[in-house]
Amino acid sequence: MLESYELIRRTVKKFPFQIDYYARSSFKNNNLYGVEPIRIIIDGLSEKAYHHEFRFTMLNKDEYVITLEGEQKSGIYDNWECKGVYGELIENQFFVGTIVKLYSLDNNISFLFRFRDLGSLENEFASRLALSYVGEQSSVVGMSLVGNVTQRDKDFLNALANEFISVDLENKNMEAVRTIDFIDEQLSNLSDSLQSSEMRLRQYRREHNIIDVNSYTSGIYSKMTTLDNKRSELKLKDAYFKQLSDYIKGNLKSDGLVAPSSLGVADPVLLNLVQQYNDLQVERSNIGEKNPKYVLLTKQIDDVRQTLLEVIDNVRKVQDLERNSFEREYSSTISDVKDLPVKELAMVNYERDYKINDNYYTFLLQKRSEAQIRKASNISDNKILQTARVQRVVNGGTKSKTYMMYGIIGLIIPALLIILRTLLNFTIRNEADINKLTKYSVIGNIRHTRSKALVVTRAHPKSLFAECFRIVRTRIEFIAKRKSKISVMITSAESGDGKSFFCINLGGIYSLVSRKVLLIDLDLRNPRLSNMIDKSIDRGLVNYLIGDCTLEEAIIKRDDLGFDLLPVGVIPPNPAELLRSKELKELLEEVKEMYDYVVIDTSPLGLVADSYALAHQVDVNLLLVRSGKTNKNFFKSFVQQVYQDGILNFYVILNDVPIPKSGSGAYGYGYTSYGHNSKYYQNNKYYVDDIDEDKK
């Protein structure tokens, strides 16, 4: 049954599988299921829409245009397009519907979509669906799909399992539902008769002032009540046999038969045949007409049908004998009733008529309650032990021979090596990589240095390394729109990107202009800046914030470095809360007035959220990216989150850019190139290499 097309069709209808959204690359289509930027709500769809591929292009935040893609737009559909507004109804020769925008994208962003009919979806999922028992003699079935749209396949498998359980429960409830429907039909027919008899009885009592009859009348009345109850049962059985006989003689449907036991019919042969018939109907409904077993089941249903007709005739003959006996007893009791006084006789007749209807109505209500309880207590015989998940990533198929042929012919070995090197490179290498991943501007590239000095910018002020920092310093001043009283926060996506080394050298380049510079180590979890300068420091920022020392005692003044340092001091147990404290905010305001430049080293923002508290308290936020080390995917998700959080004053620094090899040509920086081995470089006209100064 899990593989049946009927169950797969029911599953597919419940999900938006009938429209594929995808982006096309050079070698494959990337399905956008789960991340599609729009949703098309279809009110009407033409058959010819299934044979075309459509391109959706976002014109602006309110409008879009739909065109036909590729060779399918030839002939009468040349230059076909349809413009519309999000949320408004559109009509064209292919479909009628409304397009809703799920999230915003840049203008002129486009992708493809196509319509899928139920038949193709059924064939696709049925061909890929694999079923197997999880172990020998196990009753647990494992379902799997192999495909490249994992989220869609997971949703389908989960829905298929739930649909299977739903169908199983529907089959178990089928008998109770049919019984309830049959009884509701009888109650509907009886309701008017009951109200009418009750009204006549009430009116007669009121007119003749009769409350009760005498004991003799009560005895006869009691006997009549018993006979009336029996008549109700016989009447219900007659109605059941009539409906059953009409159903068997007429056109058989895929429904089932009401079980005789539900209505008080205890004939074992009839009960067994009805159960056989219902079981065969359920089994046949779970397979398609093309299944070889379908014909066999149909023949078995016809055989049971013929047998049922014979058994119904026999049971109805027995029912007739029982009814004849009942009528004789009933006639005798009626004779006794006729001997009663006229008023009492009329009263008995009215009460008897009301009781007949009331007892029959009560009997039906009781049977319906029993069926409803039976339905409510049913549970499926199956359950889901584990929802769908991605088990492993495999090669879901081979590329077409056409792509293989043109790929081999069109690519030579050096070009292939370059492509492979690019594809296998998961780290950021240059400024172009950063521009592809974020909207934040890159304001500087810091080249790799071979110097062992702590403050390279002071040790080698004429080096290219120092010049890189001068450019960063100048651009920070442009951003802050002043040349002093500037506060800068430095963070990164990951640890090991060179924040602390960058902070020291940025402080060094500021000190060259004879300004008062303060470096603050706010990486309260891993105070690497403090350790790089002096590992013996035992007090600092945290000690000051908790009142253990004064600010002057916490700040370390180092003439050899050219700047002052406010180290971490004792490592706090609650760094995140400390960074959000009022005392720290007041401290930052105080040191901004004391110093011309304040450089703050913080924890990696991609790992911990400590730096969020400081981003709005400084003039410029610098995000450090290390060439050949920072992961592209992690950086992309990180900066997207920061941008969505509304922190816009971030600027990117590309750190540790590799030094070009000797004889490799020009070393590019900004818009100016300086040959690494050019006469200007070698003759020290512009720069002195930092390692050359170390040798001196």
Q: Judging by the overall fold, what is the CATH architecture of the largest domain? A: 3-Layer(aba) Sandwich
CATH class (first level) name of the largest domain: Alpha Beta
For this structure, what is the CATH homologous superfamily of the largest domain? P-loop containing nucleotide triphosphate hydrolases
**Percent range for β-strand residues:** 15-25%
Shape: elongated
Record field, number of beta strands = 21
By DSSP (H or I, 4+ residues per run), the number of helices equals 21
Amount of helix: 40-55%
Nearest-angstrom radius of gyration? 43 Å
Strand order of the largest sheet: 12-19-18-13-17-14-16-15
Structural class by SSE content: alpha/beta
Mean pLDDT: 79
Task: Please summarize what this structure is.
With 696 residues, the chain is of the alpha/beta class.
Please provide a written account of the structure.
- The chain is an alpha/beta fold.
- It has three domains: 5-146, no CATH class; 164-376, no CATH class; 434-659, Rossmann fold.
- 48% of the residues lie in helices and 16% in strands.
- It has 21 helices and 21 strands.
- The strands form five sheets. It has an eight-stranded mixed sheet, sandwiched between helices. A six-stranded antiparallel sheet has the order 2-1-9-4-5-6, with no helix packed on it.
- Strand 1 (19-24) and strand 2 form a beta hairpin.
- Helix 1 (5-13) crosses helix 2, helix 3 packs antiparallel against helix 7 and helix 5 (268-285) runs antiparallel to helix 6.
- It is elongated.
- The two termini are 84 Å apart.
- The relative contact order is 0.08.
